[in-house]
User: What shape does this take?
Amino acid sequence: MTKRTSLSEAVRSIPSGAHIGLSGFSITRCAMAFVREVIRLGIKNLTVSQCVGAMDTDMLVGAGAVDRLIYGGGSLDRFGLLANVNAGIETGTLLAEEYSSLSIAFRYLAGSLGLPFIPIRSLAGSDLLARIRERAGAEVAFVDDPFTKDRWLVLKPLVPDVSIMQVQTCDEEGNSWIMGPKWDSGEQVKASERTIVIAERVVPTELIRREPERCVIPNLLVSHVVELPYGAHPTSVYREYDYDADRIEGYVEATKSRDAFQAYLDAYVFGVKDHGEYLEKVGGMEKLESLRADPVLGY
Amino acid sequence: MTKRTSLSEAVRSIPSGAHIGLSGFSITRCAMAFVREVIRLGIKNLTVSQCVGAMDTDMLVGAGAVDRLIYGGGSLDRFGLLANVNAGIETGTLLAEEYSSLSIAFRYLAGSLGLPFIPIRSLAGSDLLARIRERAGAEVAFVDDPFTKDRWLVLKPLVPDVSIMQVQTCDEEGNSWIMGPKWDSGEQVKASERTIVIAERVVPTELIRREPERCVIPNLLVSHVVELPYGAHPTSVYREYDYDADRIEGYVEATKSRDAFQAYLDAYVFGVKDHGEYLEKVGGMEKLESLRADPVLGY
Amino acid sequence: MDYTPSELMAVSGARELQDRQVVAVGVGLPMVASLLAKRTHAPNMAILFEIGVIDSEPIHTGVGLADPRVWYRAKYLSSFVDILGTLLHRGRVDVGFLGGLEVDRYGNLNTTLVGDPKGKFRHMVGSGGANDIASCARKTIYIMRHEERKLRETISFITSPGYIEGGESRAKAGLVGGPSRVITDKAIFGFHPVTKRMSILSVHPENTIEDVVATMGFEPHIPEQVPFTEPPRPDQLKLIREEIDPERMYIG
Amino acid sequence: MDYTPSELMAVSGARELQDRQVVAVGVGLPMVASLLAKRTHAPNMAILFEIGVIDSEPIHTGVGLADPRVWYRAKYLSSFVDILGTLLHRGRVDVGFLGGLEVDRYGNLNTTLVGDPKGKFRHMVGSGGANDIASCARKTIYIMRHEERKLRETISFITSPGYIEGGESRAKAGLVGGPSRVITDKAIFGFHPVTKRMSILSVHPENTIEDVVATMGFEPHIPEQVPFTEPPRPDQLKLIREEIDPERMYIG
Assistant: This one.
């Protein structure tokens, strides 16, 4: 059964106010084309979660589409900070629940396994925990280990309504390969009620069956499949293309003022009708070819 | 750093009374050569765990090397039952703690993640739970979910002293690929204090680096690497060789009486000095070649 | 009759499955029934094997889940934790499909031992994933031979809970779901919505209610109308005989 | 002086690592130090990056953990749950190696915000895996610039706990391990075994204790004997400059 559809149709399946999990980590495998379409379609009041905050989230926050962020901190690596996320936290317009990488990963893991709660050693003695208890007290608790009687912090499972997964390869049913390290992608997808896969390429199921050990997302978790080359641009996709340093620097520059960011959105989101036009605008085939990953290096 | 050693030396690292986890599932990827060497060297009083009881465990139990078995049930598929395990349970000579596949997998998972306990929905309302509570009461308990107030069964982590992993391919440091479904192998290895890898072949680390997504066991978990083609015979190894139906039938026949089983051990364990002689005894290269897996089918 | 009782059981099992469902199956007749459904009316059903396999397309009959023949052409090869944890325990499995040694009137299943568990008994296979599937799937279907020693008033051991002591007792144990069908070689049973006692839904062609009841260890609920089970279609038989179990390992 | 302060920091960091240890590292100087140790005295050390990478051998400098340059030639590519869960949280990580924004006398680390968390503040990067590493590794080493605004009497936010309020307070919070070294561009610090206050271990060549203390926000414990830090060897500098950070992205 084919689940192939357009980006626009996949995005329209997400109501305002939904909890979405995003696949980005800093500046790699970010759901950038997805985010641009969410902004274009005016979907709002989202809750976003991901282990390490990334460019996809920062742009959504900058566009005012996010009410609540559940994450473990993040940056754009050496390009800069998550300026929009940080501004939202500083001014109080964004409700940010800030954990660590493992505590978000464990919350997804608990969600993925149907566990009612999961114990963790992290966060103890930190101001992160103090803040989480103030702001999101109902999502952490303490339980006595019945075996040793030690007191353990336990976290509530995290279950996004939909996970948005940027992958290298999938089939039209949604069976997907993710190459490279997977950070929280596996747990996030399995925790989420459903998943939208955005793939560099859609291949015949026959190819998926040839290397079933590579399959990270079984199709039964997937509601929509969108084939969208360069869908993560300007961030990188391992073995496909490198990050576009110029464009990330341009983004960072644009996050320095509200006006500049609005101009950025006007140019790259509202000023183009779709992903194809966006790719033309950022340099077209010539630029994109220059980003193609070397097959040995993977970048 | 090479960890390559002989089977005998790897087995000698295990003291009598240790808790070992075995990689077998019924009649596939069973640590058979390992088990034969354990019996030959007279290591005793073992605790054995695995999700689904397999031929490796049954043979160890039949040889009187096991005091305690922690497992989720098992059989030799259509070849027969785990006759030695069953006899041990029926006569009371084997302390068997019987769970389900998922409850053992969750106990390994908790061990692998350093969780103090893990909640599970299985076992409730069954006689399995009633028995576990009688026999191993300190390994299960009930905890109230602090978020919903529901009462949940929780299991204690399961942490073998050493996991014995039959794999297809590894390097001399122990970085290992497991092809095919992995059943509980990943969680068992990561829960265990250390792992002995028994591989069909040892390849250069350079090859491991070419497909790092395939690596299931990072070398830092591995204490010994043993290269031992056909180490799982007469059980199968996916993509390497098929099970040897004649020899499994012979084993099943031998489990029908104590005398027959002793004769089996005398012939195939005590009557051969090592794995090489064993392979000669069961038919040598001609027989083994006939079991080689077809590269397309994988069996 | 141009089909065997096992073939009718497999076809009846297939009929219980719907397209797009997620089905966790054991080896044997449950596997035959699921593969048949997938090749006929339920092409988008997902078939899970606990060992870590999704949607394989075997072309040779395997001796059990441990046989790589059963994993052939899978789309996904993973682990117990993935299949039984992230799919089953997470609540994504619609139907669990199991065989069994003994079942009682409340659908409690025994695969562990026969005899007196505190005295003389014979140990069999235990749970494997059966307890997990019976505990966590939205519903469970059993396929087993119709014999007095299998359909018993009292079973020796509850490996996998059905409705436990009937009524609300399963819910009280914290479990959702429960058995929905027991398919034997003589009849198909359901469970009474309130008492949770086994109830005859249909008897297979050339069988009688009297014979069905006389060869069981307890008396099931018998509704006023008991139709005959729909027989297999020729295309279903052809698929079973030529493609799914050509070596007749499961279909006796 | 034929080396930079950053080079000395990296070499000092490398010296803290032993062969066969398992080390969880952040990007930047911790990564340079770890790669240097691995290429010199600790070839069997395992280097973990939280994103899911073990023992990569980068030949190009990456902008951060998210840069595939940093994953090149890894032996193992997996996930947060694998690295931070099955290795770190399971208790298998010997050394955590972190950079930081602010640290206090008890080795509590701030990477979250500067200013008044209840009033006006600037938010920075938060934890990532830093809190997990500081909480679960057997010991932790920090590398950071020696500035008064970084080595502070009071930090704005405890992202990653050190010895919390000193003495037994870390153990009381249920944590083992704790920071063992703080390596700056002027000195190396340890922690007093009882009070858990920061203590000068060595000052770098051409620095004085007076200058070290005068450029910090709190007074560290000063033992009677404070040696000079051992300078880098030429082979270490050569490796850093020609192979590990040839673009001088981390080594200023």
About this structure: The two ends of chain B are 33 Å apart (CA to CA). The CA atoms of residues 36 and 269 of chain B lie 6 Å apart. Chain B touches chain D through 18 residues (CB under 8 Å).
